[in-house]
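Journal club prep — side note

Before the paper discussion, L.F. wants everyone to see what a predicted structure for a comparable chain looks like in token form. Sequence:
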Amino acid sequence: MQSEDVVAYARECLGTPFHHQGRVVGKDGGLDCVGVLIHIAKRCGRTPQDKQAYPRTGDGAALRRCLADNGLSLLSQEEGHRAGDVLLFRVDSRRSPGHVGVRTSDGLVQALWKLRCCEIAYPDDLWLDRFVEAWRFPNG
């Protein structure tokens, strides 16, 4: 799938209310950050590997398994990241990684409980400090 497709499918989620372990796009639905990834995988014609037994505070190991199980590849630091890549973050400075967002040309599409819905967030120093690693969908 092309990075432009990943971004377009992620943008389809904008405005969807936040719902922990939600998987339904739209104003009457609900999504969390993994739900955005599952939506993208479905729109790309893939059968997503979806395990919903995870805590609201995030589980870095489970989140990495979800990314890998859905065919995403971990990028090296030398590769950098670009629009269409999935960025993994710590929710706060003390925790293991527990949140993902899809990079666009102008920010991150993310569903985060603090935002109450899926929206574009603009990375600031706080998020950049919590960035852990980048992943890419196949053929992205």
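L.F.'s comment for the group: The longest helix spans residues 33-43. Keep this in mind when we get to the figures.
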